[in-house]
Design goal:
The complex is a heterodimer. Helix content of chain A is about 35%, strand content about 15%. Chain A is built from twelve helices and twelve strands. In chain A, the strands form three sheets. Chain A has an eight-stranded mixed sheet, with helices on both faces. A two-stranded antiparallel sheet of chain A has the order 2-3. A two-stranded parallel sheet of chain A has the order 6-7. The termini of chain A are far apart. Chain B is built from eight helices and eight strands. Chain B has an eight-stranded mixed sheet with strand order 3-2-1-4-5-8-6-7, with helices on both faces. The longest helix of chain B has 11 residues, at about 90-100. Chain B is globular, with a radius of gyration of 16 Å. Chain B starts with a helix and ends with a strand. Classes of the chains: A alpha/beta, B alpha/beta. The interface of A and B includes residues 326, 331, 333, 359 and 370 of A.
């Protein structure tokens, strides 16, 4: 793939000690930027992507040729206005869009790491991405923002680097992965492992791809991103290009066809081992545990202004889990605002055209920036 | 800005930390922030009002006073303001207790059910009173626990809540309420404002 050679990459020279105990040296962090950094370098926003996202936040993704994952929210005159702000986004460690991940070559074997890649955590991800601040000479970010796993990175970032961001926007996320969250991720991982093409993670040597397992993982996960009402309204029991049931196992229903399509396009752009590693990092995420069970202590050192957003129909990271973060912040008198946005689009609401969400995000950022 | 907010803001000194419970569209918050350098937070149940506050650059939490005040630590604000919503709670006593726990002092305002127009309406028409401060019909009013200035006075006494200052508002007139003029103020004021502490 030619386009992949043009990915911007920072080679981090500083050794990074991972939570698993291993130390990595000279590893790549792939990133993209939008807008321009002003002279006093006070307009930078670090955006964190979710499980299957990448650094290509907006505009056309040069690899997939599709719109960036946050095109509704980021761009000229949009909620995160790239005429005003300098937006940076990195591919997470463990990912498959240029950052250090299981698809990289293991120098000791000459083949891809596969499952020999170290298990990474949300903490490792943000510690790796922190190097981008030095790279751009940014002392303090104007904001950090992200939804879902991106929100988890936001929370971890501000707890690790309390004076490195003025505003903090965790969206549709949680401070600790629930049993249900872990269960869905495990379902996805087992689907991949059950594909005979996975070959214990060493599929690149065998020149195969566990695309069936990965597609099933995506299908299962995709359901969790939508709401029951949203699915019912969009698909109901509508049949797929047929007048009646066929009494077989082809996709009779539109929802089946839709999910199969989602699975099939996903395998073209995502790596199965990356899926394993990133879901594992999410499952290991428990910010309160890092502070002996007291979530408030994660935020004690920061003076940043928080704005937390949840969605009514998000059952993957429901409002209550977002509110728990608000409660932890209020209990230490932090500056925190919170709004639950009405939407029937489920967890995916933060990626979609939800006007109340986008206007809240825009107003919060623009007002906070002028108050600086 | 309405007279009530003017009076409330005069009760609050500069540079204080204040929580506005049921802050609505944030008019009072904005005034305090701009004129008193108040470190101000709001709690508001209506999503659209929360959006209006965000658009004004105010820090607001979407939530319900009966459920969500408990997340704030004891005495974490110098003042907690509750403007004309006490009567809308299922359990006003619990809310008052929470205000006095979270705030060193609380400012509570109530539409006065002892106001002469309210009394006259019920006396003459025999239907539930509708006035400027109480504009809704009985079947759609959010107000389920109406009280008069006198009621609030007696309530505070019975609960050992200290009333620092109580003010009566009638149109543009603001006057001080005390033990000796309570009956008269309870008749002529359509709004009562109380600065309390426990």
């Amino acid at each position: 793939m030619n386009a992949k050679n043009n990915i911007k990459t920072l080679i981090v020279k500083k050794p990074l000690k991972l939570d698993c105990g291993k130390t990595i040296n000279e590893f790549p962090i792939a990133y993209e930027t939008y807008g321009s950094l002003n002279k006093i370098k006070d307009n930078a926003i670090l955006v964190f992507h979710a499980l299957t996202g990448d650094q290509f936040v907006t505009g056309q993704n040069p690899i997939t040729k599709k719109d960036g994952w946050w095109s509704y929210a980021v761009g000229p005159d949009k909620a995160i206005d790239t005429k005003k702000y300098f937006v940076i986004c990195a591919n997470v460690m463990g990912g498959c869009m240029g950052s250090f991940g299981p698809g990289h070559e293991d120098p000791s074997t000459g083949t891809a790491f596969g499952t020999n890649f170290p298990v990474i955590t949300i903490n490792d991800m943000v510690n790796a991405q922190y190097n981008l601040l030095d790279h751009f000479g940014i002392d303090k970010l104007f904001s950090i923002a992200g939804g879902s796993m991106g929100g988890m990175q936001v929370l971890q970032f501000i707890s690790n680097f309390p004076d490195k961001a003025k505003t903090v926007i965790p969206i549709a996320c949680t401070s600790s992965h629930s049993a249900q969250n872990i269960a869905f991720n495990e379902l996805g991982r087992q689907a991949i492992a059950a594909d005979s093409n996975w070959k214990g993670g060493d599929y690149s040597s065998a020149d195969t791809i566990p695309n069936k397992g990965l597609a099933v993982a995506r299908m299962a996960a995709h359901i969790t991103y939508l709401s029951k009402k949203g699915l019912q309204e969009k698909f109901g029991r509508k049949l797929q290009e047929r007048e009646d049931l066929k009494f077989g196992f082809d996709a009779d229903f539109q929802i089946e066809s839709y999910l199969r399509y989602q699975g099939s396009v996903f395998v073209d752009r995502f790596d199965a081992n990356s899926y394993l590693y990133i879901t594992r990092a999410m499952d290991y995420f428990d910010l309160a545990k890092q502070y002996k069970g007291n979530l408030s202590d994660a935020f004690k050192a920061t003076r940043a202004k928080f704005f937390i957003i949840s969605f009514t129909s998000d059952w993957l990271y429901p409002t209550q889990e977002n509110k728990d973060i608000v409660i932890a912040l209020n209990s230490i008198g932090a500056d925190v605002g919170f709004v639950e946005i009405e939407s029937d689009k489920g967890h995916d609401s933060f990626l979609l055209d939800v006007p109340d969400f986008l206007s809240a995000l825009k107003n919060f950022l623009d007002k906070s920036y002028t108050e600086n | 800005m309405k007279n009530e907010f003017q009076v409330i803001s005069e009760l609050i000194e500069k540079d204080k930390k204040v929580l506005d419970v049921g802050c609505g569209d944030g008019i009072l918050m904005q005034f305090l922030k701009n004129n008193k350098n108040t470190n101000i937070r709001g709690l508001e149940i209506s999503k659209s009002k929360v959006q209006e506050c965000i658009a004004k650059g105010l820090t607001v939490i979407e939530g319900n006073a009966e459920k969500d005040l408990k997340q704030f630590p004891d005495k974490s604000f110098e003042y907690v303001v509750l403007s004309q919503t006490l009567q809308a709670f299922l359990n006003p006593e619990l809310v008052i207790n929470e205000l006095l726990r979270v705030g060193k002092k609380a400012i509570v305002t109530i539409p006065n059910f002892g106001y002469w127009r309210v009394r006259l309406h019920l006396l003459i028409k025999g239907t539930m009173p509708i006035t400027k401060t109480l504009p809704d019909e009985w079947y759609n009013t959010p107000n389920i626990h109406m009280c008069s200035i006198k009621d609030f006075f007696y309530f505070a006494k019975s609960r050992n809540i200290k009333i620092f200052k109580s003010l009566a508002i009638n149109n543009q007139n603001v006057s001080i309420i005390n033990d000796s003029n309570l009956t008269i103020k309870n008749f002529f004021a359509d709004l009562g404002i109380f600065l309390i502490e426990k």
